[in-house]
Amino acid sequence: MRPLLPLAVVALALLAAACAKKPGGKCSNEAEAECRGKTAALTCHDKTWMELSCRGPKGCVTTGNTVECDESLAQAGDACDHEGNVACAVDKKASVKCDKGKWVADEKCPKGCEVTGLLVKCE
Fold this sequence. Notes:
Blueprint: H1 5-18, E1 33-35, E2 40-45, E3 48-53, E4 60-63, E5 66-69, E6 73-74, E7 86-89, E8 94-99, E9 102-108, E10 113-116, E11 119-122
Parallel strand pairs: 6-7
Antiparallel strand pairs: 1-2, 2-3, 4-5, 7-8, 8-9, 10-11
C-alpha cells in the first residue's frame, strides 16, 4: 500500500494554482493587496482583484503586512481605485483624475505638474 501524502500534496498544489489571484477574479478581503513586481500592485476592490500601476518614484513596496503603491504618477487609461484622486501624468505635462475606476485626463499643466507630499500642483 502506498502512502497518500504525495497525492495530497499534488492536490493542494493544483488547488492553490486554481485559486491564483488575477485581475478581474473574485476576492473577499477588501484590505488585501500585494506587489506585482516594482511597478504594479494587485488589490481587492469591490470584491474583485484590480491591478494598479505604481508609476511614481517609490513604485510598489511591501513592508511587513503593508503594501504601498506610489500612484503620484499615472497614465490615462490605467486602473485606479480611489474615486476623485488626482496625480500627475507620467510626462508631467498634465494632471489625471480617477474617474469610474480609470485615470482620465484632468488639466494641462503648461509649466509642469509636480507632487509634493499628498498635493498635486499643476501650473
